[in-house]
Specification:
Blueprint (H helix, E strand, L loop, with lengths): L2 H14 L15 H16 L5 E2 L5 E5 L7 E7 L12 H17 L7 E6 L12 H7 L17 H7 L17 E9 L4 H4 L4 E7 L1 E10 L15 H18 L7 E3 L3 E4 L9 E10 L5 H19 L2 E10 L2 E2 L2 H14 L4 E5 L5 H5 L4 E6 L2 E2 L6 E2 L2 H20 L1
Parallel strand pairs: 3-4, 3-5, 5-14, 6-13
Antiparallel strand pairs: 1-2, 2-4, 6-12, 6-14, 7-10, 7-11, 8-10, 9-10, 15-16
EC number: 3.5.-.-
Protein name: Hydantoinase/carbamoylase family amidase
Pfam families: Peptidase_M20 (PF01546)
């Protein structure tokens, strides 16, 4: 691979298609900015004589024909980001895959197995709160008709896809057939800092944590701020109590080891300084490595949520948003990553991953493997980034691993 070209194109892709320049990277799926990023990828693949097509969810696909009809190898990552996200989130894996395929073309390497490149849509769940939506749709974990009930304040997912010029009705014909896939390989910058803290540059993932997320709506009564405290049914008070009770429960050790609990969004309706809100709406993300632990953890947290509402005489709705993860990575791909890393003279850290990347839903239907690159944090600004030498090391391991598996 051409390391300088890889770094240059990674920089270009990571900075050019961004709605919040100077304040992280924001590139939501099915947006004008995502369209520009898609056009950039189409241009780069076109230079190799390869066409790029979008499926009904907006996932982008490219195919490189191999010598045989053996099950293919899929490579890629996600195109979208969260609001004000990390610079190389998703883009590292996409550009590393692009550079790998271009290097193969330039050296005249024809793989034994065909290769499929996928740039996944809506991995972050920024539009509807459901993570890995693009990969869940083409693996059948989420059915196309479910898109009609997946809503935000403005629309549902089905209508949003159609408005963007996509055909969600055709997704049933575009799902991955497991026996036709030999392996899925993803490379990503770590979103935690376990590699950095353990003084490693590269991580080979053994398993991805299971996660569940919910939107909670506490329904109180909107009255003027002059209303005496004892006469209020303030949903914000219930949110505070709920959050406190869950933290107490976590601290008491009643949940399995490594349980994670996060309130990522909170808003009030109406959001007026002189009014007591009628609603307090917030999200809860629950994670644990073992998927079998999630039902009991979720039920306990729901029990706390409802108990607080009953105590304060308000209503409550608990709306499921997303579920994923709880999947072990393929030993085939793990071993291929290890072989490549050893041959290149790098060290690696075997680890579990707490982030629900596309390798999680993909790993539920085909053998999958995830390679992580160390995440640094600027001590002054708090900005996450990865060192150029670490990015190149990760891309080299990724390329060598792909070469090994497509040659088998």
């Amino acid at each position: 691979m051409n390391e300088q070209r890889f770094l240059s194109q990674l920089e270009e892709f990571s900075t050019a298609f961004n709605d919040t320049k100077g304040n992280g990277v924001t590139r939501f799926s099915w947006s004008h900015t995502a369209t520009l990023a898609q056009s950039w990828l189409e241009k780069e693949f076109s230079r190799m004589g390869i066409s790029l097509r979008a499926d009904g969810a907006g996932n982008l696909h490219a195919h490189i024909k191999g010598k045989t009809d053996l099950p293919r190898v899929i490579v890629g990552s996600h195109l979208d980001t969260v609001q004000n996200g990390a610079k190389y989130d998703g883009s590292f894996g996409l550009v590393a895959a692009l550079e790998t395929l271009r290097s193969f073309r330039e050296e005249g390497f024809i793989p034994n197995r065909s290769i499929e490149f996928i740039a996944f849509a809506e991995e972050e769940g920024a539009n509807f709160g459901t993570t890995c939506l693009g990969s869940k749709l083409i693996t059948g974990i989420i059915k196309p008709n479910d898109l009609k009930s997946l809503c935000n304040d403005e629309t549902n997912a089905w209508d949003m896809l159609e408005k963007f010029g996509l055909d969600p009705a055709n997704l049933e014909n575009e799902q991955i057939v497991p026996h036709t896939v030999y392996a899925y390989l993803e490379a990503h910058v770590e979103q935690e800092r376990r590699l950095f803290k353990n003084n490693y540059k590269l991580g080979i993932v053994k398993a991805i944590s299971a996660m569940r997320s919910y939107r909670i709506i506490y329904h109180g009564e909107s009255v003027f701020a002059a209303t005496p405290l004892k006469e209020r049914r303030d949903p914000v008070v219930s949110f505070i109590e709920c959050h406190t009770e869950i933290q107490k429960a976590v601290a008491s050790g009643i949940f399995p080891e490594n349980t994670r609990f996060t309130v990522g969004q909170i808003c009030c309706n109406p959001g007026t300084p002189i009014m007591v809100p009628g609603e307090c709406i917030f999200t809860i993300d629950i994670r644990n490595l073992e998927i079998s632990n999630l039902p009991a953890i979720s039920e306990k947290i729901k029990e706390i949520i409802v108990k607080v509402a009953e105590k304060n005489g308000i209503g409550v709705d608990i709306v499921p948003l997303s579920r994923s993860g709880g999947v072990k990575m393929s030993e085939l791909v793990q071993n291929a990553y290890k072989n490549a890393t050893n041959e290149l003279g790098f060290e690696y850290f075997e680890m579990n991953c707490g982030t629900a990347l596309d390798a999680a839903p993909m790993g539920m239907v085909v053998p999958a493997g995830l390679l992580l690159v160390a995440n640094q944090v600027n001590s002054e600004t708090g900005e996450k980034y990865a060192l150029p030498e670490d990015l190149c090391s990760g891309a080299l391991v990724y390329e060598k691993t792909i070469r090994q598996l497509v040659s088998e």
